[in-house]
Each structure stands twice: as C-alpha cells, then as structure tokens.
Amino acid sequence: MISNAINQTIDVALGERSYPVWIGRGLLDDTSRWRAALRGRHVLVLSNRTVAPLYLERVTRGLDGLHWSSFLLDDGEAHKSFANVGLALDALASLGATRDACVIALGGGVVGDLAGFTAACWMRGIDFIQMPTTLLAMVDSSVGGKTGVNLPAGKNLAGAFHQPRAVIADIGTLDSLPDREYRAGIAEIIKGAAIGDPDFFAWLEQHAKALTARDEVALVHAIAAKVRYKAGVVARDETEQGERALLNLGHTFGHALETAGRYTTLLHGEGVAIGMLLAARLSERLGMSAPADTTRLEQLLKAVGLPTTVPPGSDPQQLLALMRLDKKNTAGTLRLILWRGIGRAEIVAGVNEADVLAVLKEAAT
Ligand code: NAD
Ligand code: MG
C-alpha cells in the first residue's frame, strides 16, 4: 500500500475479486505498473470523442506488442445505449478477443458504465480496467462494480454487477475537466461524508477553498477519503441488499429535478447537491435531524460553488410525481434515504407524501 501526500492506493476488499484503486498524478504514463493488470493479449480501449484526443495515446503507448483496438463513443449520456454495447461487442469480435481479453474504460461515468457492461457481456464476463477522467467517475462510478446502460424507458435500467480489475485515477486528467463538471464531482464527495463520515465532513468544511481551487494535496485526500468510504460500503454490501442504498442520499429528489429539467438544466452532481439539501430539510421536518446540520450542509455546498436552490419554475406536484417512480419505492409509499445529521443516514419507508410536498413547495417559492 503506497501512501503519501500525492499518491494513494486503496483496496476494495472483495475476496478473490479484490482490486486496487490508485490515485495520483501521471499514473497513465506508469504503463509497466498498470500493464501488469492485463492477463491476456487482447485489449479494447473504450473512450469517447472528447477524451480520446486528450489521453488515448498515453494509454495505447502502454499496449505495445499486444492486439488492441479502440472504440469511441460520441460524447453524452444519450450514447450510454444498448446499441453501443452491441457495437463494442462487435469490436471485441473483430479483435478476436479471447476470454483473457481486457476492456479499458478511459473516460467519465458514461464510458465506464458502458465499458464495464460490455466486459460483463463478452463471453459472459472478461476483465476490465477503469481509467476514470472525471472527478465524479474517480470518486463514484469507477468503484463498486455497477455497470450498465440506459434504455428508452429510463436511466440505468439494463446492467450487471461486474467489478473492475483495477481503477487507475490519474488526477492529471482533471486538468482539462471543466469547472462545472469538477464541482459536480465534489457533490458526490460531500455526499459520502454526509452519509457516513463526520470527521471527513469537518475536513471538507475546512478545505472547501483548497478543493475548489484544485489544490493537489487536498484533492487527493478528498478523492481517497471518498473512495475509502465507498470501498467499505461495497465490501460490506456489494449488491445493495442494505447499506449500499444509503449512497443514494439526495438521489430521489435529485433524479426528479434532473428529469424535470430533461437532463439538460442540471448535471447529476448538481441534482444530488440540491437533493441532499431537500432530504436534509425533510429529515429536519420529521424531527430526525437538527437545523444546525442542514445549515452546515447548505454552507458547504455553497462554499464549493454547488447549487442549493431548485431551478426557477419547478413544479412541486410534478417533482413529487417523478419521485413516486423511483426504483427504491414499493407500491404506494415513498422510500427515501434520510439522515440523522452529519455522518448518519438511514433508509426510511412509508414517508408521508404531504411532508415531501411541503418541503418541495417551500423550496420552489
Ligand atoms: P460523463 O462521462 O458524461 O463526463 C462528463 C463530461 O466530461 C463529458 O462531456 C465528457 O466527455 C467530459 N470529460 C470526461 N473526462 C474529461 C477530461 N478529463 N477533460 C475534459 N472533459 C472530460 O459524466 P460523468 O459525470 O463522469 O458520469 C456520469 C455517468 O456516470 C452517468 O451515466 C451516471 O449514470 C453514471 N454513474 C454511474 C455510477 C456507478 O456506480 N456505476 C455512479 C455514479 C454515476
Ligand atoms: Mg450519484
């Protein structure tokens, strides 16, 4: 285990399927290190048309002597589709990929989710390596083995649990990431602290400025702390039978806001930021948490430049209707992740819709 200010390694402990998450600058160029995770001679690098011109060559330089090809998606959530999984599988077929082949995902969560699902499907499951290039992918989507694609009927409706062999988070790739995307990633970092790590939450309050200014030491610390937290949850509850559902704090409200904006007004992390705050207000209203905790959350979100108010013109009744469609619900009642203040979240079933509506109405005025 390497551990200094700038490089960190965190292990996701899943027995035989355990894997390391490396965090640091310049890791893509450390080819001899990551190449050791390849078992066979066939590699398909999956990326997109924004990321590939920036970083693909650095990866393919490490594939010298192997049979490899690349498959590039167009940029955007719309391309996380079943059709593209089919094309990626065709690319593996053209490569003559055998069971020991590896798929490398070079990109954000869209590329990672699709690449992982493709790897899960080819010959019923081959290796894949995550090389996340967004902050959100580094702290969230690349770790934990949830893979999948969207269907016309909804987001992430087709997928599989398939853990990567390694996660290589080269923070140098974030240099080209737009600020808005960077902040959306911070939302998922704050979420981890809000759910289960009060000390980390306090650290984030103290380092909000450094983190938004992309101070490297603060950034690596924050990524590592969130990954360590998520790795622990995943090791205890890989397939979301219980605890892992807590990672959805703010997501039922957030998804409703994202859907209401037709996925064009809010980034996912922005929806989660507002959603966490609404969940905190609802928890406060239900007597589960103290107003001071809600205030701390709101101030931290503001300090890192995340939105804390619902978009103008939001319709509370429409948002409630969208929340009723959430996967966590059972027929007729709302099931939400609420919290008991900084660092403690819980699943609450049978939440009264009138309370949810009251919180939404207050937020929309
Ligand atoms: P994304 O993959 O769309 O990337 C965001 C944008 O940044 C894209 O335009 C992309 O081309 C660009 N980009 C990526 N890396 C860049 C770089 N280094 N420099 C410049 N631009 C870069 O979005 P995301 O936020 O990374 O991921 C969102 C996706 O992740 C969603 O599909 C969501 O469902 C999924 N997700 C999955 C999990 C999971 O557990 N599997 C968890 C959270 C989110
Ligand atoms: Mg999320």
Quick summary of this structure?
The protein is 45% helix and 19% strand. The radius of gyration is 20 Å and the shape is globular. Helix 10 packs across helix 13.
Distance between the first and last residues' Cα:
51 Å
The ligands found in this model are: nicotinamide-adenine-dinucleotide, magnesium ion
Give the biggest beta sheet. Answer: 7 strands, mixed
Structural class, by secondary structure, is alpha/beta
Mean pLDDT: 95
Percentage of residues assigned to helices: 40-55%
Fold topology:
Elements: E1 8-12, E2 19-24, H1 31-35, E3 42-48, H2 52-60, E4 67-73, H3 82-95, E5 102-107, H4 109-121, E6 127-132, H5 135-141, E7 146-151, E8 154-161, E9 166-170, H6 179-196, H7 198-212, H8 216-236, H9 251-260, H10 268-285, H11 291-303, H12 316-324, E10 334-339, E11 345-351, H13 353-363
Parallel strand pairs: 2-9, 3-4, 3-5, 5-6, 6-9
Antiparallel strand pairs: 1-2, 7-8, 10-11
The structure holds nicotinamide-adenine-dinucleotide (NAD) and magnesium ion.
